[in-house]
Amino acid sequence: MTVNPTEEAASAPGAQPGALPDAPPGARPAALEARDLSVVYPGSRGRAPARAVDGVNLRIGQGEIVALIGESGCGKSTLARALVGLVKPTSGQVLYQDTPLGYSAKALKQYRRHTQLVLQDPGGALNPKQNVYDAVALGPRLHGLRDGLPERVHGALARAGLRPPEEFAGRYPHELSGGQQQRVVIAGVLALDPRVIVADEPVASLDASVRGEILKLILHLRDELGLSALVVSHDLGLAWNIADRVAVMYLGRIVEQGTVEEVLLRPQHPYTKALLSVIPTGAEDWRPTLLTGEPPDPTAIPAGCRFHPRCGRWAAASEPERAEAACDRRELPVLAADGYRAACHLLHTDALTESV
């Protein structure tokens, strides 16, 4: 995979017109999928309900890494937690290998053998009173996998890059670096032999010097074990270095998705372009695009295109263009789960009656 030089050294939900309802020919079989998924948190003290996830279709193929990108508050973490069964959707479905997720205690326990969440803060995820061995063994013990437990734990530590595992097994979190703590968290996931991992900002709390090591580890696990992964991040450089496909999220919706090259080299949606514009290009005329208006508020979703109040393209549009596009009053359809799509009325004169 090509490395970006800026990285760490650098109105009703429905299928988009013209979009395929399922994966296009040649796509990998689905490992994990969200279909028309919504998560609404009830309001309190007179506040409106918060539509944190609002009609999302997202597909992670077998052996594929998908990066979910967006600002803080756009619903990425809520979607991640819904995909691993920690949050029950208000509507829609989560499917594992085309089978809808059940929400009984037994069904969720069985599901979590196969789909695991990697948290952002490894220090907070680890019990300071528990040594590395017990931290990694916790999951297998909860699932009754006690036969051959030492071999399972040591094997997971080795796959996570903590070698020799015997040297780390007796240590406690405070005796480890941030990168080593994250590897322990990943080892705890690997000890259950999952098929899918959902990593929520897996390197956000780490120093730049170790971020690349963790990203390289995730790629290695994909190649060695055939793992599928959804990596949640606000870092477009991370997406470039690790992902096969990218989904861009804004205010509870996927607004653009496609391969890394399609989305990051030829972005179509104004929001994606604004996110990419902050990466220095080295050109003399380089200027970042500053988003105006208020950050996303899931309790006050605007009419029409939910990005239009902050959209520079809409602000610069002529009156005839505004009349035709009607970004401030006409709802955009929900994007289909796969293929290259961007949800923007201003992309086409036919107002999005064909795919991008």
From TrEMBL:
GO MF term (any one): ATP hydrolysis activity
Residue intervals of the ABC transporter domain: 32-276
Organism superkingdom: Bacteria
Gene3D superfamilies linked: P-loop containing nucleotide triphosphate hydrolases
Alphabetical list of PROSITE patterns matching this protein: ABC_TRANSPORTER_1, ABC_TRANSPORTER_2
KW Transport (keyword) present: yes
Protein name in UniProt: ABC transporter ATP-binding protein
Phylogenetic lineage: Bacteria, Bacillati, Actinomycetota, Actinomycetes, Kitasatosporales
